[in-house]
Amino acid sequence: MDSTLIPLASSLLILVFIFSYLLARLIKSLRTIKNSRLIWRNTYPSIEELHALFDRGDIMLAAVFIASTLQVSHPEIAKTIRAHSTFKTDPWRRIIRTMTFMFIMIRSNSLERKQVIEWLQRLHRGIPLFKFETNVLVFATFAYGLAKSHEYLGSATPLEIEGIVRGVMSMADKLDPKDLGRKVPNTMAEVEEYLRSELKFDTKVLKDINDENSQLSSVWDEMRRQGFTKFLIRPRTSVQLVLLTKFVRRLSNNVLEDKACHGIFESLFWWCIRKLQCFLSFFHYSMCPQVLTFDGTLNLLISGNPRMADVPIELYREIFGNKGAPPISLPGGSLRQFSDMEAHLPRMEIDQRPMPTVLKFRQELKELVQCSYYRGKLSGSPGHPPRHLGVIMDGNRRYSRGRGLNSVLAGHQVGAHKLLQVMSWAFSSGVQNLTVWALSDDNLKRGPQELNPLFSMMADYIHEMMMGDAPFSIPDVRFRVVGDRAILPDYLNDMITKAETATAGNKRFNLQIAIGYGGRSEVTRATKLAVSKMVQEGLSLEEAVEKVGEADISRQTYSAQLGLPQIDAILRTSGENRLSGFALWESHHAEFAIVEENWPALRQSTFLRSLLDLSKRNRRFGA
Ligand SMILES: *[C@@H]1O[C@H](CO)[C@@H](O)[C@H](O)[C@H]1NC(C)=O
């Protein structure tokens, strides 16, 4: 062997050695990252995450296109659309009206939605829109469109797909209170089967749609005339639009023709298109995050053409009449993101004082990491989540004062929204039974000027929950109220009864709100009930008083009466160090955690940390 080769070979060997060593290290550290317990996703999306699902314009547009393509394949609906569509005469205006309509629908509460529907019915006189059957069809097309777009254009997992379908379909029985609880297709498989049975694939109809789609080009022409070239004319966007159209057609045909299987080349082709689309979207979102959101697109379409400036307000007035300022700010002015509207509760304003961006980013990042960490810990923890968690929601008033909100009610509203979040956090951590203390019997001594608005907010809130707005992220919530109902106003009691009846069949999550509740009065009540039950069973009063025992009283607590396990963990917010009588009887064995944050400001990481703490300590006495 040539002697000059020896040093070369040995250094090569050393290099190879070092390289393999580094590679092994890298692989090992990657493995540890993979195995370490960081869980980045909730199984059940929070409300913000669900809204984020609507925040990618291309996905939303694809969903709308797919849904409308499917809808016009339904003979009745096709007739309606053809009779009333002004798409051919003024497409730009028509697009903005449709998008504004969706904007209002998504953001309004159930009372406002009712008005929107009445308006639509006025508009489409004589056509049975918004019958239950039509609702199911419309929602099914949208569920399919949204789920498929997320699968193809985003990276939704099968579980998320099912979540989207369930979320959308859970709205189908809630447009009209009399339809509540009627059966709707609820999984992707059921939706597909349902659509196949309802729709008729008709090449003539599809040709019509394509004709209408080509009307879009007149919008582009008008844009160019308006000198509005900065956005949609860009080649990248055009490529996206072409892909989107193709993609929509393919997915719609998929349902209509029942062609599940494709050849390998076709599959490969679509795989590439999907990747390209994802890549382009990614590019778009990293460059100009606002523009391609649903709101951003709408805003651009409006601001791009002076003729369109008044269209949203006009539509708003058409629907709601001429009464004051819109409760939701309509597009056209500043760019708004969906996250601004975190919940749909009536008259609700979320505290939005701006925070310095860098600080906010750092806090968000920290929160994300902490939540992931605690989630991982929780899933691997040897303890078990509480079988029944009780929460003392304290600090709404302090929060209002500390934040300088204009009324105490504002703090309660933010607090009400917080409950929705906490429900989804609790549910995704394995808690299924949650009792929250909203108002004590002592609080009822506060003056009517504080109580009346609070009662009316509660009634609105319960109505929203029942109509499906609030627990959008966890359908299947059974709702009940514990406490002294006799002291509540009639309209609130009626609303509670309605909601309890409507959700009586739900099984996956039990939410109890304690209103007019006090621990001592619960124990007094339970004792009385225990004694009177024994008297009814034939004992004399003296014998009953003599014989009544702890077990008899336990059987008459609210939890026992509702068929729930005893409250075995209690969380109190706002740093207060006492139980104040909450779950007085049951708290005997319950674990207790206190957090400093006021209820409306409770962070997910804090909640998860307390839950972890509670589950570790949980010894399940007397279960
Ligand atoms: C919640 O309560 C129900 C009884 O209504 C019980 O079957 C279920 O196991 C409880 N959930 C948990 C997580 O303990």
What does this entry show, briefly?
This protein has 623 residues and is mainly alpha-helical. It contains 24 helices and 6 strands. 58% of the residues lie in helices and 6% in strands.
Can you put this structure into words, describing what you see?
Helix content is 58%, strand content 6%. It is built from 24 helices and six strands. Strands 3-4-2-1-5-6 form a six-stranded parallel beta sheet, sandwiched between helices. α19 (490-502) links the parallel β3 (477-482) and β4 (509-517). It is globular. Bound molecules: 2-acetamido-2-deoxy-beta-D-glucopyranose (NAG). Residues 387, 432-433, 510, 563-565 line the site of 2-acetamido-2-deoxy-beta-D-glucopyranose (NAG).
- Average predicted confidence as pLDDT: 74
Report the sheet with the most strands, covering strand number, pairing sense and barrel closure: 6 strands, parallel
Percent in helix: 55-70%
Strands of the largest sheet, in order across it?
3-4-2-1-5-6
Number of helices: 24
Coarse shape? globular
Q: How are helices and strands ordered from N to C?
A: HHHHHHHHHHHHHHHEHHEHEHEHHHHEEH
Low-pLDDT stretches are 33-55, 229-237, 285-292, 332-356
Which ligands, by name, code or SMILES, are bound? 2-acetamido-2-deoxy-beta-D-glucopyranose
Query: Could you give the distance between the termini?
Result: 81 Å
Q: What is the structural class?
A: mainly alpha
Secondary structure: number of strands: 6
Radius of gyration: 29 Å
GO cellular component, one term: endoplasmic reticulum
GO molecular function: ditrans,polycis-polyprenyl diphosphate synthase [(2E,6E)-farnesyl diphosphate specific] activity; oxidoreductase activity
InterPro entries: MPAB/Lcp_cat_dom, UPP_synth-like, UPP_synth-like_sf
Protein name: ER-bound oxygenase mpaB/mpaB'/Rubber oxygenase catalytic domain-containing protein
